[in-house]
Amino acid sequence: MQQVTAAVRRRAAEHRPERGEDMGNDGVAGEFYEYLDHTADVQLHAWGKDLTHAFENIVPCMLNYMTDLSKVDVDPSQTQTFEVEGHDLSSLLFAWLDEFLFRFSSEAFVCKAAKILEFVRPFENANTSSKSTGGAVGELKEGEKQGKYTIKVQAEGETFNLSKHPQGTEVKAITYSAMQIHENEGRADLYVIIDI
Asked: What is the dihedral sign for C-alpha 50, 119, 106, 77?
């Protein structure tokens, strides 16, 4: 496991942009994600200065694979606010992406930007919660206990329209396979394999 963690940290350091905090890996401002090859599937890799930003960035990473987000406008009348929950960080990440995939499939809602309003992790002290910054998959930080992890989000975008939005690759499902959540000081990385 330590070898895998070391390899991920090396790869994350290699992808650390030198062109400024606001530039993504492809040189486009605001895009902090990439697609990695995986046998018969695709691995999403999103990052940010903390876990909240990484979670926000993995949403357009997935949806941009399904349609060109540069063609998607933000229609304020279609902005959605909702909550997602999980029993740990990995189940929260799964539920997070699964909810956006569900809304795309059932409501044809294309989210261009996900703005996390609240990111809560349970702690031993019932009176305390945190706008959290994460940890490794399945691991609890000192003082944490099992409980409900929740994200409240404001999703901005519009209804998918085939005459306006090009059809990309269909995402069939989110998977737990090789899911990784890494957090270091000043940077968090998410890796999720999607079934296409």
From this structure: negative
Q: CA-to-CA distance for 58 and 169, rounded, in angstroms?
A: 16
Overall domain count for the chain: 1
pLDDT tens string 110-123: 999 999 999 998 86
User: For the whole model, what pTM was predicted?
Assistant: 0.76
**Domain of 112: which CATH number?**
3.55.10.10
pLDDT band for position 139 (cuts 50, 70, 90): low
Q: Are 66 and 104 within 8 A, CB to CB?
A: yes
Determine if residue 108 is left, alpha or beta; phi over 0 gives left, psi from -120 to 50 gives alpha, anything else beta.
left
Per the listing, tokens 């606010």 go with 81
* Cβ contact 83:152 at 8 Å: yes
- For residue 95, the enclosing domain spans 2-195
